[in-house]
Inverse folding.
């Protein structure tokens, strides 16, 4: 059938192992979309069939150039979350682990805010409680907070699924209810 690819013939279509320069091009192209962790880049280069030595050399060069930095990636990821879809620290850390951020990096940042303050003047949430309030406001989309218990439980469940701890969820719902009463 024209245009349809069948299984690759290993003997005829096998690509040669990339050298250091083509591995660097592959990595730079992969970094073009967004920052990446060391683990993601290593996986991508392995998929391109680069040798272990070429992968290590490429990653070292990229690290020296400042393109591979798991701490910077962690801060960037957390800032993106704060800006577009606020989540609790637990969920952000789980997402970062899925991207291959080492446990040591997450441990070193524990106790501090993951994201740095916004550089473009936009006010980003500064702590867990503010993140939860922003997430709830976006979820409500300008509607008033209902007073019936089932709706409040539903909103609490939403915040819990976003990675906020139970105490933060309760405090956020209490705060939203108090603001609602004060506005009336």
């Amino acid at each position: 059938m024209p245009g349809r690819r069948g299984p690759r013939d290993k003997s005829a279509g096998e690509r040669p192992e990339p050298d250091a320069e083509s591995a660097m091009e592959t990595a730079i192209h992969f970094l073009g979309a967004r920052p990446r962790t060391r683990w993601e880049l290593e996986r991508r280069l392995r998929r391109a069939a680069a040798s272990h030595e070429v992968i290590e050399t490429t990653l070292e060069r990229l690290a020296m150039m400042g393109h591979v930095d798991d701490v910077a990636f962690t801060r960037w990821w957390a800032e993106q979350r704060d800006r577009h879809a606020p989540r609790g620290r637990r969920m952000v850390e789980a997402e970062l682990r899925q991207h291959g951020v080492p446990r040591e990096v997450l441990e070193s940042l524990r106790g501090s805010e993951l994201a740095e303050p916004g550089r473009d003047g936009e006010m980003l949430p500064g702590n867990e409680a503010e993140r939860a309030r922003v997430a709830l406001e976006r979820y409500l989309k300008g509607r008033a907070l209902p007073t019936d218990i089932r709706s409040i439980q539903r909103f609490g469940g939403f915040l819990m699924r976003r990675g906020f701890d139970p105490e933060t969820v309760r405090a956020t719902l209490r705060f939203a209810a108090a603001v609602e009463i004060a506005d009336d």
